[in-house]
Amino acid sequence: MINLAQKDVQHTLGKFLVTAMGVGMLLGIVLIMIGVYRGMIIDAQVLLDDIGADVWVVQEDTLGPFAEASRVHEDLRDTVRVIDGVKSAEALTFQNIQLPQKPSPVRVVAVGFDPFGTVNPVSSKRMVAGRGLMRSHYEMVVTDKTGYHVGDVIRLLRHDYHVVGVTHGTVSSGGEPLIYVSLKDAQELQFSYSNNRIRTDRARGIEGAEGHMVNAIVARVKPGYSIDEVAKNIETTLHKGVFTATQERTLLTQNLIKMASKQIGMFTGILVVVSTIIIALIIYTMTLEKIKEIAIMKLVGIPNSMIVKMIAQETLLLGVLAFIFANLFSHLIYSKFPKRVVLEIPDAWMLFAVVIVASLLASLAGIKKVISADPQAAIGG
Amino acid sequence: MAGKAGIRVENLYKHFGKGDTLVRVIEGASFEVNKGELVALIAPSGAGKTTLLMMIGCVEEPTSGTIWLGDEKVYEDKWLTKETRKIRREKIGFIFQAHYLIPFLNVIENVTLVPQTNGVSEAEANKIAMELLEYFDIGDKARSMPSALSGGQNQRVAIARALANKPQIILADEPTAALDSKRSVDVVKMLKKIAIEQNVAVIMVTHDEAMLPLCDRILKIEDKKVVSEPVPKEGVAIL
Q: What are the pLDDT digits (tens) for B146-175?
């Protein structure tokens, strides 16, 4: 039996492929949008995973250090260390700075930590060149997206920092590239004021002690101790904001990026609807272009079922081809995006299901046109 | 009805619209076309030739009357079957002014589409189609697309398509209008030959008086009725 859809597609193969490619690019953007969302989730957890802390101690009544600003004294670390069940504790700082990269500056998040402490946020598995920090001052590890390489020298405030290591895939919860400096350098970068400011503060009676502030204290719990209980104990004892790693992760993934994910979800939904409308319009137009042939077929007695099958098969083929092009397109361009895009197979299959349903819905307009086509339209009169 | 009549129409009416906009196209047409007969249907433009053809072809529903196609009464004040398209597919071959081939099917696919839809196997349909295409001297074009053929070749493919389902009736709506006079004579002679060899009733709408002497009879729509006219010996103006 002659497959009308196959014959029609063969006859207009170039046009059909270009159309599928166009729809595929649109669907590819849908995949990229989902990938951006997945990337945000992963980005949000990179730092948490690399630090590997069990408990986060932050400024009281805040959701710091990522969801809200938090400042605590550095020596709080020593107090936390003596709480029952705490194996180790370290101070960390997080701050946005701008590296003077050419042709345009790079905005990064600087993580300050004690290079000789027990918590090293520079994960060895993410190192792609050089080494970690081994000195207390003026060394820096950067992520590759900053464009800096081992041996580069970066001037920040009054000092030159030497790039000693490069990491890959390290970003902040907001997706900005990470750099790592020693805690002392980070404190200086964050809390150093100009001489004029210091003089003015002194005249006001303000004696700055901020040089010893940090943004959070992280602690690891001894084996056999409950993280929740140790966290509760720290909170009761020190009257600080205390979050377990799980709570901190929830703060990041559910609260911090909730709005962004909603926004992306809406964009994705709109794009799917737009894609459906476009497929419907394409199928309708393709049907209209064939209306004379359809009328002839009806006139010579070809049943509606055969003609409807032709339209439905063409629509499905368009959907499948568009889906394939969407995957090719998204895999070709996703690495070019400045922020992490994660393409996952389950998302692709979900989109496939959506595309097939959308295609079948989209073919309804064309099928309606087929059923209502007047056979006499073939000959006029 | 059994016998030699391929088409029998009794007291057929066709009205369009109603009230002030009522248009009476056919008023009580009655005629027969026998198997093996080529009958020309003539009338001035707008007189209802195509409408009459489409009613016989089960495409346009009449207002009232009776239509027999071979032994089967298909219409008596209403369609007697819901499957008018099946009747068209199985009993009728259509030929039009233009070839109206399906552009995305090649020649043999155009010819075999209806037989295959009727359940004939692909191999059998191809055999029938090749015989017809050879008969019309276009066997070598079987795998060509219609766009690669001349107008005359395409018209022969269209006639082959009309014959491929072994119809009892052929309805030809100005099949020579787009052809030159030599090709026109060839096509009408071909229809005459088919009518005789395959014992098919053929009605051919035409404006071309030169074709009338080649026909067995002439039916003319006059005052909304169908009347029989003698076949002119030469090109006598009767339109």
A: 999 998 899 889 989 998 988 999 999 988
Contact A381 B102 (CB under 8 A): no
Looking at the fold, whether A21 and A69 belong to one and the same domain comes out as: no
**pLDDT mean across residues, chain B:** 89
Q: How far apart are the first and last CA of chain B?
A: 33
Residue whose C-alpha is closest to residue B181's, from B209, B156, B141, B203: B209
Q: What is the predicted pLDDT for the residue at A210? A: 62
pLDDT tens digits for range A351-364: 889 888 878 887 88
List pLDDT tens digits, range B12-27.
999 998 888 899 999 9
pLDDT at A211: 66
* Rg of chain B over all Cα atoms, to the nearest angstrom: 18
pLDDT at A81 over 50: yes
Beta carbons of B110 and B136 less than 8 angstroms apart: no
Phi/psi-derived region of residue A337, left when phi > 0, alpha when psi is between -120 and 50, beta in every other case: beta
Q: Are A77 and A213 within one domain?
A: yes
CA neighbor of A219 nearest in space, from A229, A206, A204: A229
Indicate whether A84 and A213 sit together in one domain: yes
**Min CA distance, A293 vs chain B (Å)?**
6
Domain-located, residue A152: yes
Q: How far is A143 from chain B (nearest CA, A)?
A: 57
| Tens-digit pLDDT profile for residues B106-158 | 999 999 999 999 999 999 999 999 999 998 889 999 999 999 999 889 988 99
- Whether residue A193 sits in one domain with residue A305: no
Question: How much of chain A exceeds pLDDT 90, in percent?
Answer: 49
The confidence score (pLDDT) of residue B2 equals 40
> In 10 A of CB A301, how many CB atoms?
26
Q: Both A215 and A185 in a single domain?
A: yes
Q: What is the DSSP letter of B39?
A: E
CB contact (8 A) between residue A293 and residue B173: no
> Structural domain of residue A190, as residue ranges?
60-239
Measured in angstroms, the CA of B233 and the nearest CA of chain A are apart by: 30
- What are the structural domains, with CATH classification, of chain B? 5-77+85-229 (3.40.50.300)
Give the pair of three-digit tokens for residue B5: 């009549």
For residue A193, being part of any structural domain is answered with yes
Residue of B14, B59, B112 to mutate, testing the A interface (most A Cβ within 10 Å of its Cβ): B59
Chain A positions touching chain B (beta carbons under 8 Å): 1-2, 4, 7-8, 10-12, 292-293, 296-303, 306, 375-376, 378-381
| Residue B82's pLDDT band (cuts 50, 70, 90) | confident
Please give the radius of gyration of chain A, using alpha carbons only, rounded to the nearest integer. 30
Would the CB atoms of A376 and B54 count as touching at under 8 Å?
yes
Chain A residues whose CB is inside 8 A of the B59 CB are 299, 375-376
Are A22 and A65 in a shared domain?
no
Shared-domain flag, residues A214 and A337: no
- Number of domains composing chain A: 2
Minimal CA separation from B89 to chain A, in Å? 4
* Shared domain check, A353 and A226: no
The residue with tokens 């969801």 is A67
